[in-house]
Amino acid sequence: MKNIKNLYGVIFLVTLLFLAACKEEVIELNENLSAVTVLNLPAENSTITLAPTTDASVTFNWEKAAAEDGNLVLYEVVFDKESGDFSQPIFKSVSDGGGVEPQLTLTHKELTRIAAMGGIESSSTGKLKWTIIASKATNQKVGTVSRLIQLTRPTGFAEVPATVYLTGSATEGGDDVTKAIPLKRLEAGIFEVYTSLKPGTYQLTDKPAAEGKKFFVEGSTIKEGPSTITVTDQTKTYRLRYDFNVATAQVTEIESIGLFMSAYNTEIAQLTYAGNSKWEAANVPVEFYQFSWGRDERYKFIVHTPAGLEYMGSQNTDNVSPVGQPAPYFDLVPVTNDQWNNTYKFTPAADMKNVKVILDFSSTDAYTHQVIVL
Fold this sequence. Notes:
mainly beta; Immunoglobulin-like; 3 domains; nine-stranded antiparallel sheet; six-stranded mixed sheet; 2 helices; 8% helix; disordered N terminus
């Protein structure tokens, strides 16, 4: 028992010594630093014509602030309206390198968004003020100098929607916004849809919900707001294309779509609109053309518009038989009017038979088509 007591005593003593040795030395943090006093780039009243659809950028550069202990200083670039005092800046961004480098690179796309925050409208020019906030722990210093930068915004939206839908009494989905028709995104800011419009009104929205951001078209210009577009003409089919990068809309009537067979160099059938962005030909007789080397089965599609003919076909210049091919074989893309290139091939079973042809423009992924041997 005595040995056990002695052992506990030794353990207790060692523990006290260990705790004493581990006691941290408290060092007071030195937060003292100076404000940024020199701005290098851009120069005062620099004029920049923004091109948000390009990779162009602007570099903001300044001289480092001095920290009393020589340790790292963090930087933020702050923007305000021309008359602002940076007490309520319109935008802040940490500098490059996670805030430690004395410069910041902003793309024209980012600057366009900042310009919009500062009240610079589309297709107009305005000025913003910028400076640097240097910080160390809780101590922040606003720069003693600031500069003006003049920004010219192009036509278009500072922030283009990621998705766009069509809704309203003139559309196939009606006034119920939850049934709004989705548009296909061709590239950033550019959307289109093949659909019908009837007498009534419609508008665009970035989501199929009441709280979605609304857009309308005035002339050929896209504008943000709750206004609607009025349709007074009879029901027709259209390709509606919207480019939010330059705020323009293009409405193209689809008069008809023909099934073009290359060897005959003519359309062998006309497809009619079936609703839900689809065109169909229910019963088309097909006969391959006899050449000396064999029977030719190539085809593609011709879209008739008031402005002329457009061609839809395969992404492949030369195609193989569709038998056993994956779904992308049937994808529809704009092609040239070349008689033979970018065509598909009918399945061998279609020769001397009737087929049903369906063009489907409803997908927001890829346009496609089907050929069903009857």
